[in-house]
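Write out the 3D structure for:
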Amino acid sequence: MRVPALIALTGMALAAAGCTSTRPAGVATTPIVVASAPQPVAGYDWFFHEDGQEALLAYGLEASDDLRLGLGCAKAGGQLTLNATAPKGVADEIHIEAGGETERFAARSEPSELNDGVFLTASADVEEPVFQRFRQVGWLAVWQGDTREAYAPHPASRENIEKFFIFCG
């Protein structure tokens, strides 16, 4: 009984192999990536503020000191200033992600005046791939150690992201 079962399994394996398609040499495959965007959080959003020759795009609670991430720039300057809060003991960097792109920016750390953590400040070029991806997908995440917080806009504020990057040049 073992031999007929082995023959049957071998026959099924060969039949299955015969049903597989082969790709001609030189034809590349494109992986299908399914990614879901983070959802907005009640009360938190991306806020755009323009003041003459400077602009700020900040994620936090409106009209409060609860800032999670701030991006600032001079008009058409091409450079960004990043500000973030973090707990004490994290690396002196701002590690961000947008739609699969990630980057770490060396940061200056100083004690926070608002909580027990630190306030981080870094500089970056507006053309960095992570910011271009942020413009496309509309959300940005900040990593602090193994912790990831995603910052998604509410539908009405989505345009603030593009306004900011147009301003910064």
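The chain has one domain: 44-168.
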